[in-house]
């Protein structure tokens, strides 16, 4: 069997031009053998502006395309990064599938932002379409590529595990004061609330840390899920009105809320029959300096911990300095005065740079990424088990049946907080 041909420079097309696309664009400055060659957005002006930013960064030449079909069929595009809203991902993958199976374009791979889809049926469909089209695929979970997570896992499994045994508990939390765009707040479009939006990060980085290096993530079998969801902040009357002012009248948490707090416990079992647990917590109700990610890994004679707000760089700005509101110090920044942490390389610290470096090299050389759509499906299965547990107010065991037809209450319009 011949080795796959190596593409000298992978020409990437972006589907989406918003907040997360800018993170990926920034991270590409640290990636070799890549060109951001195209972009499609339903809003043409946004696509044109994104192409200008890519060209100004020296990552092009990049041009805006008039449709996803045109982007996928272009002989100037080798791979597509799906970065649009959750409710558009299945249809996007169907379009890409039709182009490739119809013999148009020369796509080698497709990568998709988290979560892979809004529910398990959609996630499995995205995976099926990618594999039926013969595309290499990568699931864009940036936190497993965080430099601290990568380094921490390497040390724990090299120095801690051989002398005392495998880790048995991973804790992960992610909290901030709320998403940037209206669709994130809308359960039907997003697929849920904060559990879907942010716990997808937490459960997967925890599963990654618990899995032996080089082992398939599926070597840890999901046994059960227990979860609680709640509305702590954004259903209070004054915050219902504030949210409408920020996001528009279609985001009405008096009548159609999505959860702004979630906690969950997952029990897994390894191939030796040993239990491991994931404890996750997420919130849109945290007001601190900005986004806070906390990760821990515990084993018999060792532990690991990470807090993204415990930065090496901090600045103090006195009350006499009246700066404009922004996110120039860190993501989801909430203040411009006082003692503030600074993330000097957000794209690197959060994992986007290593993530894209890995995906580009895998697509370019024909190798399978360490994080694929199979992992994206597994993440959605964990999320659906947690939502089902919260709805039933009891522990859900995976042996009870497949969750393929399950849709969380907030996504089916039945959740009232």
Task: Characterise the protein shown here.
The chain has 417 residues and is α/β, with parallel strands linked by helices. Helices cover 35% and strands 22% of the residues. The chain is built from 13 helices and 15 strands. The protein has helices spanning 19-27, 44-56, 68-73, 89-101, 120-132, 147-164, 182-185, 187-190, 194-210, 237-247, 346-349, 352-365, 373-392, and strands at 10-15, 34-40, 63-64, 79-82, 109-113, 136-140, 169-175, 221-230, 261-269, 275-283, 292-299, 302-307, 313-317, 338-342, 396-397. The strands form three sheets. A seven-stranded mixed beta sheet has the order 12-11-7-10-9-8-15. A six-stranded parallel beta sheet has the order 3-2-1-4-5-6, sandwiched between helices. The chain starts with 9 loop residues before the first strand and ends in a 20-residue tail after the last strand.
Quick structural summary:
This protein has helices spanning 19-27, 44-56, 68-73, 89-101, 120-132, 147-164, 182-185, 187-190, 194-210, 237-247, 346-349, 352-365, 373-392, and strands spanning 10-15, 34-40, 63-64, 79-82, 109-113, 136-140, 169-175, 221-230, 261-269, 275-283, 292-299, 302-307, 313-317, 338-342, 396-397.
Question: Order of helices and strands, N to C?
Answer: EHEHEHEHEHEHEHHHEHEEEEEEHHHE
Structural class of the secondary structure composition? alpha/beta
- By DSSP, the count of extended strands is 15
Q: What share of the residues does DSSP label as strand, in percent?
A: 15-25%
* Uncertain parts: none
C-alpha Rg, in Å? 21 Å
Give a quick account of the main beta sheet: strands, pairing sense, barrel closure.
Answer: 7 strands, mixed
Helical content (DSSP H or I, runs of 4+): 25-40%
Silhouette: globular
User: Would you tell me the overall average pLDDT?
Assistant: 95
- The strand line-up of the biggest sheet is 12-11-7-10-9-8-15
Number of helices: 13
Q: What is the first-to-last residue Cα distance?
A: 57 Å
